[in-house]
Specification:
The protein starts with a helix and ends in a 5-residue tail after the last helix. Helix 11 packs antiparallel against helix 12 and helix 13 crosses helix 14. By secondary structure, the chain is mainly α. The protein contains 26 helices and no strands.
Amino acid sequence: MKFLKLSVFVACFFIPIGFAFSQSATDSLLNKLNIAIANKDYFVKKKLEIIANLNLNLNAATSPKQQYTAYQLLFDQYKSFSYDSSYYYAKKLEQTSQLLNDPYLIASAKMKMAFTLLSSGLFKETLEKLDGINVTSLPAADKIDYYFLKARSNFDLGDYDRNADYSAIYNPRGIAYIDSALHYCKPGTFDFLELKGLKNLRTMNYVEGRKTYVALLKLPGLTPHQFAVNACCLSYIYETNGSKGASVDLLIKAAISDIESATKETVASYKLADIIYKTGDITDAYVYIKQAMDDATFYGALQRQVKISSILPIIEAQWIDQIEHQKKLLYTYSFIITLLVIFVLVFAYIIFKQLKKLRIADELIKAANITLVDNNKALEELNKNLSTANKIKNEYIGYYFNINSIYIEKLESFQKSLDKKLSSKRYDDAQAAVKNLNLENERLLLFHTFDKVFLRLFPGFIEKFNALFNKEDEIVIPEGQLLSTEHRIFALIRMGIHDNDRVAKLLGYSVNTIYSYKNRIKKKSIIPNDEFEDRIMEIEAV
C-alpha cells in the first residue's frame, strides 16, 4: 500500500503536543540525531545518485510502456522528497497512461497525482482528482490506497479548518473510508495494522492503538521511512498515556530515520522541536525547528510551512535572547584578548628597538669600510661582516613579521576554539570572546609596523620599484598606508622570502591571490618577467 506507507503520519501532524521529559534519558539518541543532521547533505546526495541512475533508465526508454515504468520509479523516489518533481512525474504518468489507453494505469496515475496534491496541502484539488477515478477498474491493493487517500483528505481538512462543526463532518467520513480500505486488507499485514492504527488514533482508542502500532513495528523488513511514520504515531499515543520517555525516544528515532532516508515530507523534527522548546532547551529546539522548516520548504509542503511558522519565530526570538545573555556573561574573555594584544604591541616595540640597533651597527661597518679601503684583508673582513649584518637584519625582520603572523594565527585558532566550546554548550567558556576579537585590525597594525620598519631599511624602495614601470603603470599607495599590497609582496621578496605559500600566509591571502598579484605586476613592468625579481633584489638598503 504505497501511499499509506509513506503518509499516514500526516494524520498526526495537527494533533497538539507538549510535555516535559528527562534530557538525560535521551542524550544518546539526541547526539545521534545531531550527527544525522550534520550529515544530512550526504543522505540527500545518495538519494540524488539513485535518481540520476533512474534518469538514465528514462533516457533509454523507447516505448510508452517503458516510459511509464521509468516515470513511476522516479515518482516513487520524489513523492516524499520534492513536491515539484513529484508533481512533474505524476503528470507525466497521467499523460503516458492516456497514450497507453489502459484504464488501470489511468486510475493509478490519477491516484499518484492526488497523493502529490494532498502532500502539498491542496485539499480541494486532491478531492477533485480522486472523484475522477473509476474505482471499479482498480485491483484490491489499489482500492486500499484509494480509500486511504479519501480518508486522509477528510482528516487533513478537518485538522486544517480547526472548527468543531466541520471536524464533526470530515472525521466520520475519514473513518468510514478507513473501514472501506480495511475491507480489502488481510488481517495481520502491514497495510491492515497501519490502517487499524490510524483508525484507533482518530477514534481516540489509544489502548488498542498502542497494541496495533507495537505489533506493526515488530514486523520484519520495515523501511526507515515506514518505521519513522509509525514510530511518530506510536509516540503520540505514549505521550497521551503518560509514557513520556518512550514517547520522546520514538520521536527522536523517527526524526533520525527521516533524515537518513532523505525524507522531506516529515513531521518528527517539528514535534520534537516543540517538545524540547517547552523544556527550556532553546538551542536544540532552534536546530530542530530549522531542520523541520528546511524540510518543509525543500519539499514544498504549504500547510506544513504554515504550521511550523507558528512557532519558529517564537523559538528563534528565544534563541537570540539566549545568545545575547551569553555574550554578557563572557566579557571576561575580551579582557584576556586585550592583554594579548598589548603583549603583541610591546613585543613589536622591542623588535623595533633591536632593528634600530642593527641599523646603527650597519652604519658603523660602512664607516669602517671607508677608512680601511687600502687594507684588502681588512676590507674583505668588513665586507663579510657587513654581509652577515645584512643577512641578520633581513632574517630578523622576517622573524619579527613571522612572529606577529603566527600570533594572528593563534588568535584565529583561539576564536575557533571558543566557537567549538559554544557549540558544545560550554557557554561559560566561550562565545562572546570571538565576537569581540577583531583580527583585521590586528593584521592591519602588523602591516603598518612592517611597512614602517621596512621603509627605514629601504627608504628608496618605492622610488626604485616605480622605476620599473611606465609612469601611467606605477602602483598607487592607498591613502593612510605606507605600502600597497603589491609593494608589500615584493618587499618580502627583497628580504629573501620567495616562497609563495609563506608570502600568502604572512599577508593573509591565498596562494592563488599572490600568484595573481605577481603576474599582474610583472606584465605591467618594462622589465622582462624573468628578470623582474632579480631587479627587486638589486634594490639596496641604507
